[in-house]
Design goal:
Blueprint (H helix, E strand, L loop, with lengths): L7 H8 L10 E2 L6 H7 L4 H12 L7 H4 L15 E2 L5 H4 L3 H13 L3 H14 L8 E3 L6 H7 L1 E7 L8 H5 L3 E13 L5 E16 L11 E5 L10 E2 L8 E2 L3 H5 L2 E5 H11 L5 E4 L3 E12 L1
Parallel strand pairs: 2-11, 8-10
Antiparallel strand pairs: 1-9, 3-5, 4-5, 5-6, 6-11, 6-12, 7-10
């Protein structure tokens, strides 16, 4: 029996079996909204800029050769679409205490056996035609992508999941700091070589991609929604990758959170034919040594 006490329009809809007209058309959070949340809610401008670059690029999945910087795919050999060398600066990075600690550790320990071996390799490769003269290894005024090939001598991997949730965490996470050396190469009469290193240059290198390698489990990247990066009682496991509206109040939709994984970005790329992986290299932070460090072989 139709309840005649209902409003006439509602009673008629019930009688005719019509669905109640929607009250709302509230837009759901989608994957593409993450950079906006980074910038406006979290104050992460660098992390937001890097992710926006990924979303705006033509679809490209990074190969292991590019990520490993093998010959032919070194940083200096990559096209501009696959290399970002303008977003991450050492001045910005050194505003984070863990980056300062990494630089100090690398500055103190760069001349490990592996570091000296790398120094010797650079000297031996570049000494052709200079056997009887002094010459300088390493022009630290060049871009980091060039130093990576010519005078990079050691590196340090740092960053953990337990690090503070800040702009560096969002932009780099686990990163690689590299050090390049510059010094005077002196050929000795006894056939040996002496190198007097008097300046070091530090820079960051990282890959920006959402690949999971051979893992069967896609890497989780936190819980995201319109508010902040945090999980809640309304957390869901499949984030929308396109514009979607629901008949729910804006207040309830604001509470939704989504567990984001690497695979969500790959789903987005497949659907939109955009989403470009790329390598990151920072500018160079130079430190002049108070006293040259001398090495001979």
């Amino acid at each position: 029996m139709v309840d005649l006490l209902k409003a006439p329009e509602e009673a008629l809809n019930t009688l005719l079996g019509r669905k109640k007209p929607p009250q709302y058309a509230t837009r759901l959070f989608q994957l593409r909204d993450i950079p906006s949340v980074m910038r406006s809610r979290l104050g992460w401008p660098v992390a937001a800029a890097l992710m926006e670059r990924w979303f705006n690029g033509s679809a490209y999945q990074m190969t292991p050769a590019v990520k490993g910087s093998v010959e032919g795919q070194r940083l200096s050999q990559l096209p501009a679409a696959q290399l970002d060398e303008n977003t991450v600066s050492m001045a910005w990075a050194l505003g984070f205490s863990r980056v300062q600690a990494a630089l100090e550790q690398l500055r103190t320990n760069w001349a490990s056996p592996a570091g000296i071996a790398q120094l010797k390799e650079h000297v031996d490769r570049q000494r052709l035609g200079r056997q009887q003269q002094c010459w300088r290894l390493g022009d630290l005024g060049l871009h980091a992508k060039i130093l990576d090939n010519t005078c990079q001598v050691n590196y340090l991997v740092f960053g953990r999941l337990s690090d503070p949730l800040d702009d560096f965490y969002g932009a780099m996470g686990e990163a690689q700091m590299k050090v390049a050396a510059s010094g005077v190469v002196v050929p000795m009469d006894n056939g040996k070589t002496t190198v007097k290193v008097d300046e070091l240059a530090f820079y960051l290198r990282d890959s920006y991609d959402f690949n999971d390698g051979r893992s069967f489990i896609s890497q989780p990247l936190g819980c995201w929604g319109f508010g902040r990066m945090e999980c809640g009682i309304h957390t869901q496991f499949r984030v929308p990758i396109e514009e979607t509206s629901v008949d729910e109040s804006p207040e309830s939709v604001q509470a939704y959170k989504y567990v984001i994984q690497n695979q969500d970005f790959r789903r987005w790329r497949e659907k939109n034919n955009k989403g470009a992986d790329f390598m990151i290299v920072s500018d160079v932070h130079r430190i002049k040594l108070a006293f040259p460090q001398t090495f001979s072989w």
